[in-house]
Amino acid sequence: MTTYGSDELRQAVLRANLVIPKAGLAQLTWGNVSGIDREAGLYVIKPSGVAYDDLTADMLVPVELATGKVLGGDLRPSVDSESHRAFYLLWPSVGGVTHTHSANAVAFAQAGIDIPVLGTTHADSFDGPVPVARQLTVEECAHDYELNTAKAIIERIGTDEDAVSMPAALAANHGPFTWGATPGKSVEYAVICEAVAEMALKTLALNPAASTPRHLQERHFKRKHGPDAYYGNARP
Hints:
It contains nine helices and six strands, in the order H-E-E-E-H-E-H-H-H-H-H-E-E-H-H. The chain has 236 residues and is an alpha+beta fold. A hairpin with a 4-residue loop joins strand 1 and strand 2 (42-45).
């Protein structure tokens, strides 16, 4: 039997999926991570409805990037596979995508409110409020729902460059999608998105008028991102 996707990619996607329950980002099977091999023209993604405790690397479903066709195995991919594929097709910098139903981020998605920048923890990772996409139309829900979910997010985010500086968005009435250079990085952003959503809810409960100056936001984002970043140390 031919196995699609390298062992390295499959292990990376497996590890990232297992972060979801450990970090409390989803109940039951309400979340998924994928990772892409652009040279091979495919990505691998969590199978639909499989419990995290049962998940193994060889269960991950390989999907052809160009067509969305399942390339092997007898399991169906996550129902969100077409959303993942849309991000990969439009944003070449993306190497991994995560979707969860983490409670605090979902609260903002259900309220239809962007997660505001209320402190430096948020600004360290996201260059502005985490946006919520518009609601889908009746037609968009009836046909190609998962693809249209991604398209609505893409409308809010914009270009590949924009996706680098804002690696998260909320699907309206649904939940967060995050992405990054690797599967691990995409789930890391999911953890951060949930953390800043929880902080924002608590902050707004204490002070509904809370805000953070833009110059402080920029200082914190730029010290971790871009050509002048100076946070952290390179590995030897």
